[in-house]
Specification:
The complex is a heterodimer of chains A (271) and B (672). Chain A contains 11 helices and 10 strands. Chain A is an alpha/beta fold. In chain A, helix 4 packs across helix 5, helix 4 runs parallel beside helix 6 and helix 9 crosses helix 10. Chain A starts with a helix and ends in a 5-residue tail after the last helix. Chain B has 26 helices and 4 strands. Chain B is globular, with a radius of gyration of 32 Å. The two termini of chain B are 58 Å apart. In chain B, 38% of the residues are buried. The chains are: A alpha/beta (271), B mainly alpha (672). The interface between A and B is large, with 36 and 35 residues.
């Protein structure tokens, strides 16, 4: 991987990311130990791994919610450690635990976050109307969010994350807790981003989602990226046909030392 | 020009917070509007109740039984009593009572005889008793102090007796010297305080306390929803990945809390002022100390000028900022709305103590002025009363602005995403996390209770033996019982769990060296506390140990210096700290120890000095990871106080002492 030459075309690049949490009882817990990651523009990249592997921690570092202990991460060419505000301007972030203000309407929610992004009033107005149409939210645009259904809320959250038209979308287990209808709407949305040239990095432990959506897949385990590539590449490397088998094979190869297994497993509380 | 990102974010967040508050009609109604409407009702209700009970009492027929045999002009007294109608005056024969004289206390026979003659507990009995010397007859009034009717009867009898005495005195004086010698010396009191001063003085006693309560209750809802609630709802994470500086977000949320708090305060204070001015009610009697101007209870007495109210608002402003910042801090650290609510009550109670000083006869001195909340509360009172001294006010304002600044500085770091993410976890995990400290705290409260009940009983029976048994027979077994569980869970030996490990010589020496400074500090704190909270005479230091003066010095040193050092340290810094330090950081350990060690001495007058000692001993044990330095310090400290060694020069020993304590590394790894 050539960092220098590829920097311009890469939407996300992380080199040797380490994240150590200091827990008062357990001492230092290493959630990420030297993780490398790169995502191209217009690419849908799926981060796969069991619970506690470090998926959430990785995404949080990239979204500037956590500062890396060491290593560097750039989003759209901006270093997350030196200019987090500029990084936040260029990303849309959505996680499974994202909530909405119950006493604001979808329109007010969009306007609030648009203002935080510094959109001018006319521009904000134009984008809000466009997005209300695109996501079919017009009929409940002025109802309070507390009165919306789960699927409707999910749309509001997505609209909120893409209102400022970010070049990079970071989605942490976006389909967790959604029913079939809502999660298929989410999958459609992610697919639609490919055409728009947005880089989508999302984590999941639902293998079928990754198979269907991803241009490339990264398998993460115990704070390290075990392998990354297209599904055929990964099949070839492991000699397995189905993603589930590929995944298990990679995990089998990548986890030889049982001593660190417990610490990575416990680190799951933080990731 | 486009506003800077921070300013833009501040405006957006503030507008959203205020909109969210306005949308929550129920909270607005309960926290802001309802109290405002309640004041007139409370005042009216209180007035009606007072009036009704007074009228009912005055209309009630009371019974006064009297045996006035031998009293000069007894008939006139009966006449005067009858004027206090409705009253029933009975003549009885209380000759048996004349021979019973139990001095100050009432014997059972006496009580029975009084009950029979007075016709039950409702009545009172007036007996003229023959005594030797001048005057030949003394009157004694028997009454039942817990019976309202009897108290009313006593009140009327007192009025009649007063009138009777005055008449009698005037007649005697005229008989002896032809005119009343007191004539020309009549006292008539004239209050020269202006109406504004009088009204302000009265208002100054209640307004600080009211202001703190109302500010906290009005601001708490916004703080809870803006910090803890948003975290629980999952919107905080979203907010913090927006291109808005965290400090701007916090500042906007804080401003929303401040606006809500001040608005509530304004509405409530306005409501109270209007009620009082409209004569709807009066300030509760318990707030009006002795010597408060009597005329100030009417509407005319509350003519507090707008200038004084404005001045009051100004001096109270740092306190308002501090209180709202504290609210935000507490709610910012809470993981859920519920957790935030639980933490708010202790905060409110703690804040009421300094604010309550304003309703006491405490002067605003330089030290109090520097204290958070206490200074502004007293200054507010003095402004309203019209006698605030400017230099002290300026100092108060500066010091309290600094306190508010410190709180805001901490607040700016509240929305630290690293911390927020790391402290995530369900309630179960949190409960699991603090199992050791909660176990130790349960034992600690048991110990405080046992010391209070058993120790108190034993010491009332026999002071030296009581102290000996409390220290040697109660605390060490409790320490062992409690530490057994802690050590078991941590898989440690008992001695290790109790930190009974050999200390570094430097730490032991350092502990002894800081003792003189600490005992001097305790004396200063105690003296200062006495100026704020006067000590009842029976608790003065000398009397406290009266039961021990018969003992020799070695015995007293053993009982009051060596034994507490060994036994108390074994329990508090041994067993209790062993549980606390496994789950909590140093600051929380020290705070809990201060609270419990202070409470264990079961005296409000000794709370501050003992809490202070507890803090130092805890810090020492955490630093040295051994119990022995704390034992040495405790013994030396108590010994110095007992021997009344008061040499300020010795305080300088603390300098090398502190150096030794900070420079020398801990003895061994007690923590794994």
């Amino acid at each position: 991987m050539s960092v220098e030459s590829g920097a311009e075309s890469l939407a996300i690049e992380a080199v040797g990311l380490r994240k150590v949490f200091v827990d008062p009882r357990r001492g230092a817990v290493e959630a990420l130990c030297g993780l490398d990651l790169d995502c191209r523009r217009g690419e849908i990249y799926g981060l796969l791994g069991p619970n506690g592997a470090g998926k959430t921690t990785t995404l949080r570092v990239l979204a500037t919610l956590l500062a890396p202990t060491s290593g560097t991460a750039r989003v759209d060419g901006i270093d997350v450690a030196t200019d987090p505000l500029e990084v936040r301007r260029r990303i849309g972030f959505l996680s499974g635990t994202t909530g909405l203000y119950p006493r604001l309407s979808p329109r007010e929610t969009l306007s609030y976050f648009g203002r935080l992004h510094g959109l001018e009033p006319e521009e904000l107005q134009r984008r809000t109307e466009a997005i209300l149409d695109r996501f079919g939210m017009r009929e409940y645009a002025d109802a309070r969010c507390e009165s919306l259904s789960t699927g409707q809320r999910q749309r509001v959250s997505i609209a909120r994350a893409v209102l400022h038209d970010p070049p990079v979308l970071i989605l942490d287990e976006p389909t967790t807790g959604l029913d079939v209808l809502a999660s298929s709407a989410m999958i459609e949305f992610i697919e639609s981003r490919r055409a728009a040239g947005t880089c989508v990095l999302f984590s999941t432990h639902v293998l079928s989602e990754a198979e269907r959506l991803c241009d490339r897949i990264g398998v993460i385990f115990r704070g390290r990226l075990l392998a990354a590539g297209t599904l055929p590449e990964l099949s070839q490397r492991t000699g397995k046909r189905w993603l589930a088998d590929v995944f298990l094979e990679l995990v089998r190869r990548g986890g030889p030392d049982p001593a660190s297994a417990s610490s990575a497993g416990e680190g799951g509380g933080a990731s | 020009m486009r506003p800077r990102p921070g300013v833009r974010a501040f405006r957006a967040v503030l507008a959203a917070e205020l909109l969210l508050l306005l949308r929550d009609r129920r909270a607005l109604l309960l926290a802001v509007v309802l109290p405002t409407l309640l004041f007139p009702l409370i005042f009216l209700g209180q007035r009606w109740l007072e009036g009704a009970s007074r009228r009912a009492m005055e209309q009630r027929t009371v019974r006064v039984a009297c045996d006035l045999d031998g009293l000069e002009s007894a008939e006139r007294l009966v006449e005067l009593l009858r004027e206090e109608a409705p009253i029933e005056v009975l003549r009885v024969d209380a000759s048996r009572l004349r021979v019973i004289d139990s001095g100050g206390t009432v014997s059972p026979q006496e009580r029975e005889e009084v009950g029979r003659l007075a016709g039950g507990a409702d009545g009172v009995l007036l007996v003229a008793r023959r005594v030797g010397g001048e005057p030949p007859v003394a009157l004694r009034l028997y009454f039942d102090g817990v019976n309202d009717t009897a108290l009313q009867a006593r009140r009327r009898a007192d009025r009649a007796l007063d009138a009777f005495q005055t008449e009698l005195r005037a007649r005697r004086a005229e008989e002896k010297i032809g005119r009343d010698p007191a004539r020309g010396l009549e006292l008539s009191a004239v209050d020269v305080a202006s109406a504004a001063d009088a009204g302000g003085a009265l208002l100054g006693r209640i307004l600080p306390l009211l202001a703190v309560i109302v500010l906290l209750s009005g601001g708490s809802y916004v703080a809870l929803s803006a910090f803890a609630g948003e975290r629980e709802a999952g919107t905080l994470e979203t907010l913090l990945v927006q291109p808005a500086p965290a400090a701007a977000v916090v500042a906007a949320k804080f401003t929303a809390v401040l606006i809500a708090g001040l608005l509530t305060l304004l509405l409530n204070a306005g409501s109270v002022l209007l009620c009082l001015r409209a004569g709807l009610g009066s300030i509760p009697g318990s707030f009006v100390g002795v010597g408060a101007p009597a005329g100030a209870e009417g509407p005319a007495g509350l003519a507090v000028g707008a200038a004084r109210l404005l001045g009051g608002s100004l001096v109270f402003l740092p306190a308002a900022v501090l209180l709202c910042a504290l609210l935000c801090l507490v709610c910012g650290r809470a993981r859920t709305f519920r957790e935030g609510q639980f933490t708010l009550l202790p905060l409110m109670l703690v804040c009421l103590v300094p604010a309550g000083l304003a309703s006491q006869d405490v002067d605003l001195d330089w030290l109090l002025a520097a204290l958070p909340l206490a200074g502004p509360a007293l200054a507010l009172r003095d402004v309203l009363r019209g006698d605030l001294r400017l230099p002290v006010a300026a100092w108060m304002f500066a010091a309290n602005t600094a306190w508010a600044g410190i709180a805001l500085w901490h607040l700016a770091r509240t929305l630290d995403t690293e911390r927020l993410v790391q402290s995530e976890g369900g309630e179960e995990e949190i409960a699991q996390r603090s199992v050791q400290s909660r176990y130790a705290l349960r034992w600690a409260w048991v110990a405080v209770f046992l010391v209070y009940v058993l120790g108190g009983t034993l010491q009332a029976w026999n002071l030296p033996w009581g102290i000996f048994m409390t220290l040697w027979l109660l605390l060490p077994p409790l320490a062992l019982l409690s530490v057994r569980g802690t050590a078991g869970r941590a898989k440690e030996s008992l001695t290790r769990a109790l930190s009974l490990v050999r200390p570094r010589l430097a730490h032991a020496l350092g502990a002894v060296l800081i003792a003189p400074a600490l005992s001097t500090l305790a004396r200063i704190v105690f003296d200062w506390q006495r100026s704020v909270l006067p000590l009842p005479s029976h608790l003065e230091q000398g009397d406290l140990l009266e039961g021990l003066t018969g003992l020799g010095l070695p015995m007293r040193l053993f009982l009051l210096a060596l034994s507490p050092a060994l036994c108390e340290e074994l329990f508090f810094r041994g067993a209790l700290l062993s549980g606390l330090r496994r789950d909590l950081g140093a600051v929380r350990c020290i705070a809990w120890q201060a609270l419990i060690f202070g409470a264990a001495h079961s005296s409000i007058y000794r709370f501050v000095p003992t809490a202070l000692l507890g803090m130092v001993l805890t810090a020492l044990t955490l630093r040295g990871r051994s119990l022995f330095p704390a034992i040495l310090l405790h013994a030396t400290y108590n010994g110095l106080l007992l021997l009344e060694v008061d040499r300020p020069g010795l305080c300088w020993l603390a300098v090398p002492g502190l150096l030794l304590l900070t420079l020398a590394k801990p003895a061994s790894e007690v923590r794994d």
